[in-house]
Amino acid sequence: MIKVNSDIYQAAEFLNKEEFVAIPTETVYGLAGNIYSEKAIKGIFEIKKRPFFNPLIVHIKSLDYLKEVAIDVPENAYKLANVFWPGPLTMVLKKKHTISDLVTAGKDTVAVRVPDHPIALALLEALDFPLAAPSANPFGCVSPTQAQHVANYFPEDLKMVLDGGVCQRGIESTIVGFQEGKTILYRYGSVSVEEIEAVVGEVFFITKNDISPDAPGMLTKHYAPKTATYLTENVAALIPTFKGKKIGVLLLDGKIELDNQIVKIVLSEKGDLVEAAKNLYESLHQLDKLNLDVIIAQKMPEFGLGFSINDRLERATKK
Ligand code: TXA
Ligand code: MG
After folding, report:
1. CA 253 to ligand 1 centroid distance, Å
2. Residue 92 lies in a domain
3. What are residue 186's phi and psi, to 5 degrees?
4. CATH number for position 281
């Protein structure tokens, strides 16, 4: 049976024994293992049913530790780290030779960040190795933002969830890389593009149709509820096309009149996109439990974290 508690020392003990455990971060819960343990890393891929070509993010305790995992770090990476670490910005950098191909899926780069969560940081402090941690959901499913979400996904085959409460950011870290002096966005996330541009200037995008992607998480169907999900700018217009069906809608601020048969979740009464991001996955988990026929999600405005929320919703609706 899975243990759910806040015992950092117990989590450290499992990790020191090459087991993997779920840990809280400010974005989503992760399935964490010692980056130097083949056993732990393989276990994470297996339990998630994650393809081996999809690399993991390495979590370090501070910027000082970066030299243990990455080399040739560009100046812009330091600028961003100084502003956003600890925090939800992952940077793809040239890897040190000591980082295994299992973690990086054979790439010569490593994705790395410092999580901004007191329990995650205390755990990293108690360990003498960094933690590789993908989100703690089966491949393709909605990411967990509470300990209980993780326990629901893996009731049997996971030893422990280190409980750190509700994730304050609620969607994954933003991922950037650096090519020929340019900052490239690999994944939308909890830090907005505008915030990054304020530090390093223009951010460039990789094309979504690239078939040998630098960031596999950019491409696949992902973050998906089991219930059929649709994304639209006009929720009211789509509802009549599902006549007689059990409908749930996911709205930004709820400024829309709906039949009271329809289940309605509002992401942020005041229309705040940061609050909406925090509530996104919990809302999808909730709607998914209601045995609805369809979920209709409202497209967010296109600025700040609106892009990140839309990105996750678009992936959730991919067939
Ligand atoms: O917020 C987060 O980033 C969470 C928490 C637990 O830290 N982690 C997370 O991990 O979202 P995961 O595995 O669900 O997503 C990792 C993403 C994948 O899309 C993967 O392709 C990309 O990071 N990635 C990892 N290493 C990479 C690399 N060397 N180059 C490009 N993309 C990489
Ligand atoms: Mg994930």
Report:
1. 30
2. yes
3. -100, -30
4. 3.40.50.11030
* pTM exceeding 0.85: yes
Q: Which H/E stretch holds residue 179?
A: strand 174-179
pLDDT of 150-207, one tens digit each? 999 999 989 999 999 999 999 999 999 999 999 999 999 999 999 999 999 999 997 6
| Same domain? 258 vs 310 | yes
Please indicate, yes or no, if residue 213 is contained in any of the structural domains. Answer: no
Q: Atom of ligand 1 at shortest distance to CA of 109?
A: 29
Q: What is the mean pLDDT of the chain?
A: 94
The closest-lying atom of ligand 1 relative to the alpha carbon of residue 95 is 29
DSSP secondary structure code for residue 64 in this structure:
G
Q: Residues within 5 Å of ion ligand 2 by Cβ?
A: 135
Q: What pLDDT was estimated at residue 220?
A: 59
* Cα–ligand 1 centroid distance for 191 (angstroms): 14
How distant is the alpha carbon of residue 109 from its chain centre? 19
Judge if 50 and 176 occupy the same domain: yes
Ligand 1 centroid, distance to 134 Cα (angstroms):
6
What CATH number should be reported for the domain holding residue 78? Answer: 3.90.870.10
- Is residue 264 pLDDT above 80, yes or no? yes
In the numeric block, the tokens 């080399």 are attached to: 71
Domain that includes residue 85, residue range = 3-205
- Count CB atoms within 10 A of the CB of residue 155: 10
Closest by alpha carbon to 21, among 117, 165, 113, 154? 154
Please indicate, yes or no, whether residues 121 and 263 belong to a single structural domain of this protein.
Answer: no
How many residues are there in the chain?
A: 319
User: Do 112 and 235 belong to one domain?
Assistant: no
**CB of 54 shorter than 6 A to ligand 1:** yes
Whether 96 shows a pLDDT value over 60: the answer reads yes
| For residue 209, pLDDT beyond 50 | no
Higher pLDDT pick, 284 / 216: 284
User: How many Å lie between the centroid of ligand 2 and the Cα of residue 126?
Assistant: 25
